Each structure stands twice: as C-alpha cells, then as structure tokens.
Amino acid sequence: MPHGRDGLKNGAGETISSPDPFEDKILALMPALRRYSRSLARSDTDGEDLLQDCVEKVLARRMQWRGVNLRAWAFTIMTNLYRNGHRHRARHPEVEFDQALDLRAEENNADPLERQRLVHALERLSADNRAVLMLVVIEGYRYQDVADMMEIPIGTVMSRLSRARRQLAEAMKDDNVIALRRPK
Amino acid sequence: MTDEFETVSDAELHAFVDDLLSQSERARVESWLEKHPEKADEVHRWQAQAAALKQYFAPYARSDENDRALISARRTAERTGSRSSAFRLRRLAAVFLIFAAGAAAGVYASDLFAPDSRLAAAASEALPRQAESAFLIYTSEVRHPVEVGAGERDHLATWLGKRLDYALRIPDLSPLGFSLVGGRLIPVNGKAGAMLMYEDGTGGRLTVLLGRNTENRETSFRIASRGDVETFYWIDGEIGYAVTGEVRRDLLQKVADECYRQFENSERS
C-alpha cells in the first residue's frame, strides 16, 4: 500500500481515533468543506444543511472514490448538490429571512453595511457562477482544476468567473446603495 | 513600443488577481495596467472583492465538536440495517431510535423509502429559521413572552388549534422538568401558526413551533444549529414542528421525542 494512502495515525494496526481511516480523512476536511458550503449558501443554517448532505453523500459513495485527491472529489460532490438544490429552490423561492442574525458573520470584523452589501450581491449570482468564484477565490483552485471538477471547458470557467466578478462589482457599486436609500 | 503589440487578455487579468502568474507575466500585466487606468480600476475592484470574500468566509473554516458524530452516524445507520440513501442522516445517532419507533409503527415507512424525500427536506428549510427567530425574539421577553398564559391552558389549545385548523394538544413536558409558560399566535410560512413556550426551574426556556406545511410533504427528524440555539424539526403530514432551545442537545432531543409522541397521540385521538 502506498505511503499515506490510509492517512492519519493508524500505522502498525493501532487506531488512535476512529476505527475507519476514511472517516478520519473526511474529519480532517471538515473545516474546508464547512467554509465552502457556507460560501455557497444563503445563511449559516443552509450552509450546515448543505455540509451535512455532502458528508452523507461522500460516505455513501466512498467506494467510488479513486483514491486520489479526496478534497477535490468531496468539493465536486458539494458543488453538484448545491447546483441541484439551487435549481430546486428556484422553483420554491424562500422568503429571505434573517441573514443578519448569522452568528458566525457577527464575529467578522468587517463593516456590517459592507458585509450586508456583499451578501446581497452574492445572492444575485447564478449557482454556477458563484461556485466557480468561490472555488477560485476562497478555495484557491486553479482554473484547470475547476474545469476538471465541474466537467466544463476551461473557457467556460473563465467566462463564469468573469461574469461573477463583474456582476458582483456592479451590485456592490456605491451609487447603487445610495440609489436604494433614496426615498421614492 | 506602441500599445498595439502589447495586449493583455481578460484571462490574464483574472490570473493576475488570483496570483496565478509568473513574476515576468505579472510585471508585464502591471505595466500594461499603468497605461490602461480603466482596466486597472476594474482589477482593483476584483482584488477588493476577493479580499472581502476571503475575510467574510474565513471564520467558517473550523471544526465542530459534532463533526465526528455526524460522520460516524452513517456507519451506525448501516449497522442498523438502513441502506436507503433517502434516509436523512443527522448529527445524532440517537435520532435513529425515534425513526425506528416511527417506522415500526408504520408511521414513516413510506417517507423513509420514498426517493424524493431529499427534496422534501429542502422545502422545509424555512421552518428552523423561523423557529430560531421566534425563540430569540420571544424567550427574551420578560413581561410579555406569551399572549395566553399557562393558567388558561384549555383556552390556549382551543384558540390556537382553531387558528391552525388542527386538533392541538399541548404537550406536557413536566417529566423532563419543563412547565408551560403559555403560547401565542405567530405567522409560520405566511399562515397562522402557534408557538408554545416552556420553562425549567431556573428560567431556561424553550419553544415549540407549529405551522401548516405548505409543501404538503414530510421530512424525518432534522437538526439545525445557530450558535448555541438548536432546533429539532420535522414535518408530519400537514403540520411542521420545530423544538428550539438553548439547552443541552440531548435534553432538547428528549423534548422533541416527547413532543413527537404526544402530537402523534393527539392526531389519533
């Protein structure tokens, strides 16, 4: 068996944490998966739901994993869950509730108004564009990696990234906010 | 040298922002941007955007104490014989005991194995958020946490039941140390819903929210957390239920279990 194949600290038959090395690997990925799920979701609750769905699917499909790059594989599963779920939600749009109450966001130091503007701007992005943006900006994937993960040509990755950035910039422009505040 | 021989593509600009260029490519883009201030502005905006996104989502890259339980819950479920991927795996293996009881009684059998129960789960996402908000808003009320107090328990049940169009029986949670504070009418999914509030001996409160299920689908037990506030929720036929509290999760789960059992009985009677 190649070195490192079974991960953490269970050499010599001694299992330190979990009886299952695959589970240990998933456990080690949880922070990254949590951040990615939240970057796609509308709220903390939605983010945790997406994360739980993803973990469930990753474990259910573990036999299909080819043994390399578990992180990218798990991210691909998350991305697909998100895109499917997003399609479903589009047919049943929910009332935008109280993202301002997200506790995790409150720990951030960013200006609350700026944060709110960012959150609203993100909501305008399509699921595909948003996923590409987050994979590149937050998760640090290269364009070709994203193309492989999403099974799309690299040119499509570039156009989605470009669209996401321009839409976000447009939505966050200062004058838009002033216009919204102006009484009708 | 004139500009016409020196062009920078859109893809290169993105790669510049994402720090994917070699040093020489980087220098070339930088000098080009100096001559194209409009493009430079756009690139600056993208850089600011990227920084804001990183800052916003960075705090989420953390472990949660329940992560291991979430992961091992799958194994537990496989051992108990459920192979259905539609089975909602949630953080606590113990939740499956509730399921098993329901399934044994034939209550959930169709839901557990229906292929589309995943979709049903997505439709119910609004419920825990409404329950959390109701909990946060009303349990912190000192003088008017409820509209009708526990002294008028029967009236409360009749009134809320009528508005909800549901034979509401108010759960008795005294075996778990919680007594009824009262209840109020509250909008849930845009329709009349009910909130019941309970309190333990030290004033620790929890709420039970009932609302009409507009999707008319069922879900199994699910759990949602926001900070220290946790919500167990489920949709059973026409009604969605959510139990929310800032108490130990195992205790909250017992409360949810108890509510489920008592609501089941009131439906049958």
UniProtKB/TrEMBL annotation, chain A:
<dbReference type="Pfam" id="PF22029">
    <property type="entry name" value="PhyR_sigma2"/>
</dbReference>
<dbReference type="Pfam" id="PF08281">
    <property type="entry name" value="Sigma70_r4_2"/>
</dbReference>
<dbReference type="InterPro" id="IPR014284">
    <property type="entry name" value="RNA_pol_sigma-70_dom"/>
</dbReference>
<dbReference type="InterPro" id="IPR013324">
    <property type="entry name" value="RNA_pol_sigma_r3/r4-like"/>
</dbReference>
<dbReference type="InterPro" id="IPR053866">
    <property type="entry name" value="PhyR_sigma2"/>
</dbReference>
<dbReference type="InterPro" id="IPR039425">
    <property type="entry name" value="RNA_pol_sigma-70-like"/>
</dbReference>
<dbReference type="InterPro" id="IPR013249">
    <property type="entry name" value="RNA_pol_sigma70_r4_t2"/>
</dbReference>
<feature type="domain" description="PhyR sigma2">
    <location>
        <begin position="27"/>
        <end position="78"/>
    </location>
</feature>
<dbReference type="GO" id="GO:0006352">
    <property type="term" value="P:DNA-templated transcription initiation"/>
</dbReference>
<comment type="similarity">
    <text>Belongs to the sigma-70 factor family. ECF subfamily.</text>
</comment>
<feature type="domain" description="RNA polymerase sigma factor 70 region 4 type 2">
    <location>
        <begin position="116"/>
        <end position="168"/>
    </location>
</feature>
<keyword id="KW-0804">Transcription</keyword>
<dbReference type="GO" id="GO:0003677">
    <property type="term" value="F:DNA binding"/>
</dbReference>
<dbReference type="InterPro" id="IPR013325">
    <property type="entry name" value="RNA_pol_sigma_r2"/>
</dbReference>
<keyword id="KW-0731">Sigma factor</keyword>
<feature type="region of interest" description="Disordered">
    <location>
        <begin position="1"/>
        <end position="20"/>
    </location>
</feature>
<dbReference type="GO" id="GO:0016987">
    <property type="term" value="F:sigma factor activity"/>
</dbReference>
<keyword id="KW-0805">Transcription regulation</keyword>
<dbReference type="InterPro" id="IPR036388">
    <property type="entry name" value="WH-like_DNA-bd_sf"/>
</dbReference>
<protein>
    <submittedName>
        <fullName>RNA polymerase subunit sigma-70</fullName>
    </submittedName>
</protein>
